[in-house]
């Protein structure tokens, strides 16, 4: 009996160590000189890969990854009808040239158009946001002093693990949202489609916080991922996606 308990304890410790740090993914981070956390998880959560489970539990400003729930909110509130409706440019010249023209929900999402979602936010209002964050059970459920910037510099914080928890509810459509709105969101999240997989994702960046979150449908399998990394320079931005794709290939997911 004592021997059996000892063996079980060793197995649990070994399993915890594997979950705490996947050496293959850790090597990817070292090779690219990246500091951060990547969590990859199967649909039922039975299989997880991460370079650092402690960092995967740390919460950060969500930046443009909040456009995932924010899109559902704007659609539910009837602020925008679908991915094709025109969002008229206000004529203000901004530093990022692709923002300086009319947008659709699809382009606003793909280009992380801040002014588009700020326009939505003014119409949603702080009290409604708090209600949605509560029913969505999204991260720490906090907004901030400015309803148009709380996901960029307010009090909202989310961890890679929480990102995956929310993405799973999006994929399974386990939120109080109309089915057509899930469909629209999933369509505009699609960034790559091959004969063997579909990749749906969203980038995020604010200050030193860089994000790439989403999920992969590969055959009969679904895998969620959330990558948060420290951005020291704009040249690091492509690494948000690169590390995720490299890790998905390394684990033979894609």
Strand order of the largest sheet: 2-1-8-7-6-5
CATH topology: Beta-lactamase
Class in CATH? Alpha Beta
Give average pLDDT, whole number: 93
Coarse structural class: alpha+beta
Largest sheet geometry: 6 strands, antiparallel
Total beta strands? 8
Low-confidence stretches: 2-20
CATH architecture: 3-Layer(aba) Sandwich
CATH superfamily membership? DD-peptidase/beta-lactamase superfamily
Tell the overall outline: globular
- Rg, alpha carbons: 19 Å
Distance between the termini: 43 Å
> Roughly what fraction of the amino acids lie in strands?
15-25%
Order of helices and strands: HHEEHHEEHHHHHHEEEEH
What percent of the residues sit in helical stretches (DSSP H or I)? 40-55%
Counting DSSP H or I runs of 4 or more residues, the number of helices is: 11
The domain count comes to: 1
Q: What does the secondary structure layout of this molecule look like, with pairings?
A:
Layout: H1 2-20, H2 23-32, E1 36-42, E2 48-50, H3 53-56, H4 67-76, E3 86-87, E4 103-104, H5 105-110, H6 114-124, H7 126-136, H8 150-153, H9 160-172, H10 179-189, E5 190-193, E6 197-206, E7 209-218, E8 221-230, H11 239-250
Antiparallel strand pairs: 1-2, 1-8, 3-4, 5-6, 6-7, 7-8
Structure at a glance:
The chain is an alpha+beta fold and 254 residues long.
What does it look like?
The chain has helices at 2-20, 23-32, 53-56, 67-76, 105-110, 114-124, 126-136, 150-153, 160-172, 179-189, 239-250; strands at residues 36-42, 48-50, 86-87, 103-104, 190-193, 197-206, 209-218, 221-230. It is 44% helix and 19% strand. It has one domain: DD-peptidase/beta-lactamase superfamily (Beta-lactamase, 3-Layer(aba) Sandwich), CATH 3.40.710.10. Strands 2-1-8-7-6-5 form a six-stranded antiparallel β-sheet, sandwiched between helices. A two-stranded antiparallel sheet has the order 3-4.
